[in-house]
Amino acid sequence: MNVAVVTIGDELLAGRTADTNATWLCEQLDDRGVDVERVTTVPDRV
To answer: How far apart are CA 22 and CA 40, in angstroms?
Structure first.
């Protein structure tokens, strides 16, 4: 299974905050045999 992870936050886009949630989630998915093809961050207001 292939997935994309989408994170939301202006602070992530600006680099003020490390995206530790996406890192953790990708590790969990990888441990279960899921391929993360892309991690994308979008602003708070789309």
So the answer is: 9
